[in-house]
Amino acid sequence: MTYGFIGTGNMGGALARALVREVSPLDVYLNNRTPAKAEALAAELGARADTAAHIAAACDYIFLGVKPNLIAGVLAQLAPTLAQRTDKPVLVSMAAGERANRCVYSPGPVLQQIRRRFGLVFQNFNLFPQYTARQNVMLASELLAKEQPDYKAQKKLLHAQIAARAEELLTQVGLKEKMDLYPHQLSGGQQQRVAIARALALQPDILCFDEPTSALDPELTGEVLKVIRSLSEQHMTMIIVTHEMAFARDVANRVIFMDGGVIVEQGPARDVIENPQAERTKQFLARYRENQ
Q1: pTM above 0.85?
Q2: Long-range CB contacts (within 8 A, 24+) of 253-257
Q3: Would you state the pLDDT for residue 8?
Q4: pLDDT of res. 92
Q5: Per-residue H/E/C for the chain
Q6: Staple 47 to which of 15, 18, 28, 91, CB 3.0 to 4.6 Å?
C-alpha cells in the first residue's frame, strides 16, 4: 500500500509521521512545498521524495493538507477533483499534532467522529425533496441525537435545540422567510443556501464545496458567493472547487491549480491568479480571460 502527500507542507508532514509511526513498513511519498523540504522529511521518515505527477499516478491514497482557518480555492481543469482524475481516494486532512490523525486505520465509531469534522456542499444541492428547508437542516442532527443513550428522556429538549439551531443557520444564509418551503418551491440559489446551512449544522471543522455555483444562473450565483464570503469573514476553514476566478482571488488564502489529476501550481491566491508561474496555469487563465 502506498501513500502520497501532495503539496501539504507541515500538515502533510505531521500526518505522514503519524502514519509511519502506526503502520510500518509501508511506502510513503512526499511532495512538500520545495524539493529540499520533501527530501529532508523523506530522509527523516524513511519515505521517498517525488513529484506530484508521480504521486498521483503511483499512490493508492493521496492526502492534501489544510490548515485551520484556511480558505483554499481549487481551480480544477477538466475535472473538479483529484479523485476523479486518478480513480484513487483523496483524503483531506486537517492535521495538528496527534490529530494528524487516525483517519486511515480507524474503527467505525472513530471514523464517524472524524467524518463529522467535514461538511460537504454538493454541486447539485442534493436536498431531500420530501422535507422542508428546516427539516433538511435538522435531519443529520436528529439522527445523531437518536444515538444518545438519554434520547427518549430528552427528546423534546433535543428537538427544540436542533430546531433552534436550524432556524439560526437558515436566518444566517438569508432564508428566514423560506424555512417551511420545500426544495421545489425554492430557486437554485436558495436551495444551495439551504445546503450550506445543512452542512454547517454539525459544526464541522472544514467545509468543502464542490463547484457550488456551477448549477446556478449568473443572477443566482451572487447569492451563494455572498454567503461563502460571509463564512470566510467568520474564519471558517473551507476548500472550494471553483471556476469563479475573481471570487477565488478575493476570498481564498491559497489557490491550487490542478490539471489531469496533478497539482500544477499552488500559492497565495492573488499570486497564482494574477502572476502564474507554470505555463499550464498561464494557458488556463488566458483562456478564461478571453471568454469574459
Answers
A1: no
A2: 253/70, 253/71, 253/72, 254/70, 254/71, 254/72, 254/73, 255/72, 255/73, 255/74, 255/75, 256/7, 256/64, 256/72, 256/73, 256/74, 256/75, 257/75, 257/77, 257/281, 257/284
A3: 59
A4: 47
A5: CEEEEECCHHHHHHHHHHHHHHCCCCEEEEECCCHHHHHHHHHHHCCEECCHHHHHHHCCEEEEECCCCCEEEEEEECCCCHHHHHCCCEEEECCCHHHCCCCCCCCHHHHHHHHCCEEEECCCCCCCCCCCHHHHHHHHHHHHHCCCCCHHHHHHHHHHHHHHHHHHHHHHCCCHHHCCCCHHHCCHHHHHHHHHHHHHCCCCCEEEEECCCCCCCHHHHHHHHHHHHHHHHCCCEEEEECCCHHHHHHHCCEEEEEECCEEEEEEEHHHHHHCCCCHHHHHHHHHHHHCC
A6: 28
In contact, 209 and 121? CB cutoff 8 Å = yes
Q: What count of Cα atoms within 13 Å lies in the side-chain half-sphere of residue 186?
A: 28
pLDDT in tens, 57-69: 777 777 765 555 5
Name the grid cell of 127: 436536498
61-65 sheet: strands from edge to edge: 48-49, 27-31, 2-6, 61-65, 90-93
Strand partners, 64: 92
Identity (one letter) of the amino acid at 112?
Answer: Q
